[in-house]
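hey so u asked for the seq, here:
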Amino acid sequence: MIGTPRRTRIIGYFSSKNATFSNKLKWNSNDWKAKLTGKFKNELGAHVGFSSAELRSLLNKVFHRVNEVSVIYYYAIYENHHTLLELINLSGLSKYIYPSVYFMGAKQD
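ran it, structure tokens below
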């Protein structure tokens, strides 16, 4: 299993427990500045992660079977918010709202 930050997220860092609200705002501000200037890229040193499609493509080169498990993960950690998660998933907003993307890969049986 692998998880990375989701490059297409609108905001991030808000689940960081040891950071102040001010730091979280600053980090998101820095991310948006990088996005607006075309510098929100891993290869430029930003900690941006991958979109779901990008990570799937990379993992398909290594694993025989690749399955995205982001939705399952978020249902598990936010078990009291299934209705909200359903709305997020059905609307297609998950690629912008969920801060990370998760996959499971398996080698050939």
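Residues 2-106 form one domain. Helices lie at 21-36, 52-60, 70-77, 82-91, 94-97.
lmk if thats what u needed
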